[in-house]
Every structure is written in C-alpha cells, then in structure tokens.
UniProtKB/TrEMBL annotation:
Gene3D superfamilies: Homeodomain-like. PROSITE patterns: HTH_ARAC_FAMILY_1, HTH_ARAC_FAMILY_2. The keyword Transcription regulation applies. Coiled coil: none annotated. It comes from Paenibacillus macquariensis. It holds the Pfam family HTH_18. SMART domains: HTH_ARAC. The keyword Cell wall biogenesis/degradation does not apply. This is AraC family transcriptional regulator, arabinose operon regulatory protein. Keywords: DNA-binding, Transcription, Transcription regulation.
C-alpha cells in the first residue's frame, strides 16, 4: 500500500560555479522527479515559460516531472557592468504522494522571487546536510524537512507585502545588494541603481527592513561565506575573497562576531555533522 503522506528527497545539495556549466536533464537514476532550485549567488540562465531566461539571486525555480529543465551558466553582466561567471544555488530533486497533492493544491509558477531570509535558507541547508550524511539510519528526516520547506514556500507567497512605491524601491535596493554583495560597491551605486539620493535610499531601507544597507550587505556576504565553508572545497581565504570581503583579517573578525567561532572552527564543526 502506498503511503499518501510519503515524501522523498532523492538528491539535494549546494553548487557554486565559477566556470561555464550546462545541463538539461531532470532524470535522477531513472526516476522522474520534481525539482526545486533556489539561486543564492550570482546569475545564470534557465528554461521557464518556454524560453531560456535570466535567473538572479532570490529566484526560485519549480519544475514538475513533466516539465523540461535546462540550465546554462556563462558570463553575465552584473549590475556594475562587469562580465562575471558566478552562480550559487541549492537544488532538490524530490517526489512522493504528499508532494503530488501539495503541487496540485494551487497553480505554481515556474519562477518566483523570494527573500534570502535565514528561516528559508536553513531548510535548504538542513536537507542538503541530511543527504550528505555518510551514515543515515533515519532517511525519512529529509522528507519531513521537505514538507516544511514546501509549506514555508506557500506561506512566503501568501505573505508577500502589498507593493507601494516606497516598498518597491526598498526591495529593489535589497535585490541589488543580494545580487552584488560578492563585489565591492558604494552607497552611491545602490542609490543610483534605483534613481534616488543616498540619504533617501538609506532612510527607505532602514524604514522597511529595520537594518542599515551596510549591515545587510555584511549579513548577505556572511551567509554566502557560510554556505561555501560548509559545502565547497575552497580555501578559507578564497571563500572570503569570493564572498566580497576586502581581506581575510576583516572577514575573520566579522565572521567570528556573527557565528561565535572562527571560519576554520565552523568548517570543522559542520563537517563533523556529515559523518
């Protein structure tokens, strides 16, 4: 008998690309699956709505088993006008009767914009960690996390704020920061991007998100660094550089202040969980 509450995660992980990359398959070991992919860094191109479109930081892609999937990572112009190859994402191949029911509960667009908040990211992170465990006597745990992620996605969509001109500008600033945090930029660049003065940009952002532009930029950089420390083979110095920190000394100081341990200790502690 098929368990109608069954939810399975087949493959889950975090990828970071600094070289061209291309794939066009949605088949995992012969199983047609759903796919959820969340862009956390940089840009890429993926097929949605019948064409290969630009995917930016904060874009979530959802595919049913019947939908074609195509991903291309190549040089893209960032908001500073620089050609770069940089793309980071969480990806989960999943399925099961519970997921079938969830999928049919409402119309689901292939692409949507979501905030890079910690509550959302931690679910992707936990699912990826569960799938990487060398010994895992409780594989159903990842299925429970997946259910929570799906329901959290529904809640995020339902709670999207009503857009006003002021909130629209603030969210444009937020998206600019998330897209360009791995590069050096000034407050002038942020304000120019949305066509307002620096003082107005600073005020609008603080009023909307209750944090400063510079503090949020540091938070985004640290979140990038954390994922790379856990999941990538990069040296810690390279993690700092690719996450937008001017030097390792400054990165070390703000990382320790945020997470209560050094980057090296953080890497060791989190990789111990994967054993």
């Amino acid at each position: 008998m098929i368990n109608e509450d069954s939810c399975q995660v087949y493959v889950a992980g975090f990828s970071f690309h600094k070289k061209p990359f291309y794939t066009s398959t949605l088949d995992v070991d012969g199983i047609n699956t759903y796919l959820m992919r969340f862009q956390t860094d940089g840009r890429c191109r993926a097929r949605y709505d019948g064409q290969l479109g630009l995917i930016e930081t904060g874009d979530l892609l959802l595919y049913s088993p019947s939908e074609p999937y195509e991903l291309k990572i190549d040089k893209e112009l960032n908001s500073l006008g620089e050609l770069t190859i940089e793309s980071g994402d969480y990806h989960i191949f999943f399925g099961g009767p519970w997921i079938d029911k969830w999928w049919k509960s409402q119309v689901r667009p292939t692409r949507m914009k979501l905030p890079l908040n910690e509550g959302f990211l931690i679910l992707f992170r936990q699912i990826a960690l569960e799938q990487r465990r060398m010994e895992n006597p409780y594989p159903e745990i990842s299925g429970y996390y997946m259910k929570i992620l799906c329901l959290e996605l529904d809640r995020q969509l339902k709670e999207q704020p009503t857009t006003t001109h002021k909130s629209y500008l603030a969210y444009q600033i937020k998206h600019y920061i998330e897209e360009n945090a791995s590069h050096m930029f000034k407050l002038d660049d942020v304000a120019s991007h949305v066509g307002i003065s620096v003082s107005r940009a600073v005020h609008l952002f603080k009023e909307t998100f209750d944090t400063s532009i510079m503090q949020y930029t540091i938070d985004v950089k640290l979140d990038m660094a954390r994922e790379r420390i856990i999941f990538s083979p990069m040296s810690l110095e390279n993690v700092a550089e690719t996450s937008g920190f001017a030097n390792y000394t400054y990165f070390y100081r703000v990382f320790r202040a945020r997470f209560g341990m050094s980057p090296k200790q953080f890497r060791i502690a989190n990789r111990e969980q994967l054993k």
